[in-house]
Structure prediction request, 283 residues.
Amino acid sequence: MNHSTLVDARQLAAHANATDWCVVDCRHDLFDYALGRREYDAGHIDGAFFADIENDLSGPKTGKNGRHPLPTREKLVDLFRTWGVTNQTQLIAYDAQGGQFAVRLWWLARWLGHASVALLDGGWQAWVAAQGAVSRATPMRPRGSFEARAPLVEYVDAAFVRDHLGDPRTIVLDARALERYAGEQEPIDPVAGHIPGAVNRFWQANLTDGRFKSPTELRAEFDTLLAGRNPADVIHQCGSGVTSCHNLLAMEIAGLPGTRLYAGSWSEWIANPANPVARGRTP
Prediction:
């Protein structure tokens, strides 16, 4: 069975050290980039590799392309091969933040055309609570033969978002906390506010006690937000294109596939002073 959204700790434990499963630790902190690696070195799911959000799962910054630009597909293919991944491998990503960062790997794998990728629901905390095996060792696997295929997800750029400002068929979902969306607080980026017309959907609203809500709950909530719009007309956005993937995954769980990611997100949007900025708690 291929898993494309979530697995629980019991399902993962049943495949511990299976050669056709690959577990990747994506723990991270936006204010302490080295924290994830320190936590990994102190203890991680037995057999898990580590992926650094800033380097492994992002490309070079130019000052105009946001805080976490997409890496090239070629870079990702090479990374997957270093983990021993093939096109038959089941990828599992986890973090300790409710999936805030692990969703980046989930989306990137699908961008490479790999459907067998899922999050560990509840992340590191769920694994520890289930008394799953923990290790400090970095696994060793033969180099994989992974090949990229046609993307299973789409992304848009700033020009596309600008062209659709005010389009009633399009909805931009901003995954940041309400205070950041409103421009009341901005601890990371140099400009506060949101893209005009964007609707706030804080990514943590997808969770209950650190785990994703049921498909039924998520479907009802997103149906209300979409107000009859087609999922293909949804654009996900956050500060840098990472956490917005949480809403994208939540919509997949809810049975609403086909949404798109604004990969550069707010940090890219504000790099161009010609782009309009809105403030306040409403679109």
Notes: The chain has a mean pLDDT of 97. The CA atoms of residues 232 and 259 lie 5 Å apart. The chain has ten helices and 14 strands.
